[in-house]
């Protein structure tokens, strides 16, 4: 396990989001990304909660933003170095953004995420 300062971890999440190709980032809609500095539920590294873009219809309006939560301690518990944390944050952010785009866990695993 490696300990990463909360502010540094949040910067890693921001860097991972900034690394998403611009054309995909422009398609993201009504989603907030937050960091929780605990382990999170059932050993999850990240969690997407909301209505994926593929399930939104003309009736999708006036709703709270979808949420992507990244769990700092859960990720740090898996890693032995700062560089491993950076990579795991990147993988977790991409995985949860994939859910925002309607991609299932099974398909994300097939894609290596």
Helix/strand layout:
Blueprint: H1 6-18, H2 22-27, E1 31-36, E2 46-49, E3 66-71, H3 72-78, H4 82-100, H5 105-110
Parallel strand pairs: 1-3
Antiparallel strand pairs: 2-3
What does this protein structure show overall?
- The chain has about 110 residues and is of the alpha+beta class.
- It has one domain (about 5-50, about 65-110): Zincin-like.
- The chain contains five helices and three strands.
- The chain has helices spanning about 5-20, 20-25, 70-80, 80-100, 105-110; strands at about 30-35, 45-50, 65-70.
- It has a three-stranded mixed beta sheet with strand order 1-3-2.
- Helix 1 packs across helix 4.
- The chain is globular.
- The two termini are about 20 Å apart.
Beginning-to-end CA distance, first to last residue: 22 Å
Helix count, DSSP H or I runs of 4 or more residues: 5
The major pleated sheet works out as: 3 strands, mixed
CATH architecture: 2-Layer Sandwich
Class computed from helices, strands and strand pairing: alpha+beta
CATH level-3 fold name: Zincin-like
- State the share of residues found in helices, binned by percent: 40-55%
Reading side by side through the largest sheet, how are the strands ordered? Answer: 1-3-2
Query: What is the beta-strand fraction?
Result: 5-15%
Shape: globular
Radius of gyration equals: 14 Å
* Tally of discrete structural domains: 1
The CATH class? Alpha Beta
User: What series of H and E elements makes up the topology?
Assistant: HHEEEHHH
Q: Give the averaged pLDDT, no decimals.
A: 94
Overall strand count? 3
Report the uncertain regions: none
């Amino acid at each position: 396990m490696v300990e990463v300062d909360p502010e540094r971890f949040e910067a890693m999440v921001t860097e991972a989001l900034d690394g998403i190709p611009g054309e995909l980032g422009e398609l993201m809609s009504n989603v907030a990304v937050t960091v929780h500095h605990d382990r999170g539920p059932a050993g999850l590294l990240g969690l997407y909660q909301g209505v994926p873009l593929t399930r939104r219809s003309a009736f999708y309006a006036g709703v709270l933003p979808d949420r992507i939560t990244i769990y700092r301690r859960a990720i740090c518990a898996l890693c032995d170095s700062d560089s491993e944390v950076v990579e795991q944050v990147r993988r977790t952010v991409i995985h949860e953004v994939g859910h925002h785009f309607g991609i299932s866990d099974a398909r994300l695993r097939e894609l290596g995420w």
